[in-house]
UniProtKB/TrEMBL annotation, chain A:
Gene3D superfamilies: ATP12 ATPase, ATP12-like. Belongs to the ATP12 family. Coiled coil: none annotated. This is ATP synthase mitochondrial F1 complex assembly factor 2. It comes from the Eukaryota. The keyword Oxidoreductase does not apply.
From TrEMBL, chain B:
This is Protein FMC1 homolog. CDD domains: Complex1_LYR_FMC1. One of its GO terms (cellular component) is mitochondrion. Belongs to the FMC1 family. It comes from Drosophila rubida. It comes from the Eukaryota.
Length: 273, 102
């Protein structure tokens, strides 16, 4: 009797599972928006974000505090803009702040600078093609001025390559670039790495963070060959446009993050007598 | 883009993104941006930094908001919608059905 019930129950569960699997695919459900208002608090240690009466915490459970007011406001706005659910995967500014606060991979400054340096020889803008003249010309006109700017700015001598062999980066250049990145705080470097990962290029990331080009332009330059090929093969909205908008949002988030983190608002106002 | 246009577009995007578009006047971001604009009204070179720093940051935030909005729109249009009907597919590529009037 007991066994019979057990069997019955088992077969019931089985049936439920198979029918559910066939009908819909289950994603992990997103947390609901459990708050009405967001706000920013100014405390001795920095700025905190509140969701109603609760204080925002990072995924690791530490209290969310940032040094910069606009950054805290951007995070509060991002939480306020969530509709019914909190879509964490699209909140790039908050995600960057959380990563910098928690540092989940326990990265040190040296690790991060090394990561950036190892990226140098595989920088997108250093690999140019000579198979197609139109593309080559495009790269020459668009990428070369930025390589030149970078070399001038950091007093380096990066050379592009036209073949599959990676460009040689001398130790001297590496030391110069490492020195530049060492001067930033750990938080700022998180922003830099996010920008470099998005653009697949240090040259472009530095150019956009130092205000040489706009965010849209930087993303367009990093997708230069893709854009070129699109002219012949057609543009698919759910792939090309989606990735373009995603990259733009990610890059803009990291640029804002770097700027808010390394700018000290020392305003000296003119004396008006 | 000039400072004024950036401001107008920023406020527009904030309104688009907000969960409650009517309350935009009280939103922290809008108030902060307006305050910044007041502060740098005469020149945005008061900070001894690169030129046009304030406008650059404004443009960057603008592209953040607008890219996010466009991304969400494309995502909503295409993600896990299941199979389209014949009519929808025809609309997508600009064809008409045999039953449609010419």
């Amino acid at each position: 009797m007991l066994r019979g019930i057990r069997l019955l129950r088992f077969s019931n569960i089985n049936k439920c599972q198979t029918s559910a699997l066939a009908a819909v695919r289950h994603y992990a459900s997103q947390p609901k928006r459990f708050y009405k208002q967001t706000n920013v608090l100014c405390t001795d240690t920095g700025y905190e974000v509140t969701l109603d009466h609760r204080k925002l915490k990072t995924p690791k459970g530490t209290l969310f505090t940032v040094k910069s007011e606009p950054l805290a406001i951007a995070v509060a706005t991002e939480f306020d803009n969530q509709k019914e659910h909190i879509e964490r995967s699209r909140m790039h500014i908050s995600a960057l702040c959380f990563t910098a606060l928690d540092n989940p991979n326990n990265l040190t400054k040296l690790d991060m600078v090394n990561y950036l340096l190892n990226f140098m020889p595989t920088d997108t803008v250093l690999f140019q093609s000579e198979d197609e003249t139109a593309l080559q010309e495009l790269q020459l006109n668009e990428w070369d001025p930025l390589i030149n700017w970078f070399n001038k700015r950091f007093d380096t001598n990066l050379q592009k390559t036209m073949s599959i062999t990676p460009p040689q980066v001398t130790d001297d250049d590496k030391i110069k670039i490492a020195k530049h990145f060492q001067s930033f705080s750990l938080d700022t470097l998180h922003g830099y790495i996010f920008a470099v990962d998005t653009l697949k290029s240090i040259v472009l990331a530095c150019a956009v963070i130092e205000q040489q080009i706009s965010v849209e332009k930087a993303v367009a330059l990093s997708r230069l060959e893709e854009e070129y090929q699109l002219k012949f093969w057609g543009r698919v909205e759910w792939s090309h446009d989606l990735s373009q908008q995603d990259l733009q949002a990610r890059l803009a988030a990291s640029v804002l993050f770097v700027h808010f983190n390394c700018s000290e608002y020392l305003v000296q106002e003119k004396l008006i007598l | 883009m000039s400072g004024k246009r950036v401001l107008r577009s920023l406020l527009h995007e904030l309104r688009e993104a907000a969960s409650n578009p009517d309350a935009i006047k009280n939103s922290l971001a809008a108030r902060y941006i307006l305050a910044q604009y007041k502060k740098f009204e005469t020149t945005d070179q008061q900070l001894c930094k690169a030129r046009n720093e304030a406008v650059f940051l404004g443009q960057t935030y603008l592209s953040y908001l607008s890219s996010q909005r466009k991304y969400n729109a494309i995502y909503k249009e295409y993600h896990s919608r299941g199979e389209r009907s014949v009519k929808e597919t025809a609309d997508l590529v600009g064809f008409k059905l045999p039953t449609d009037p010419k």
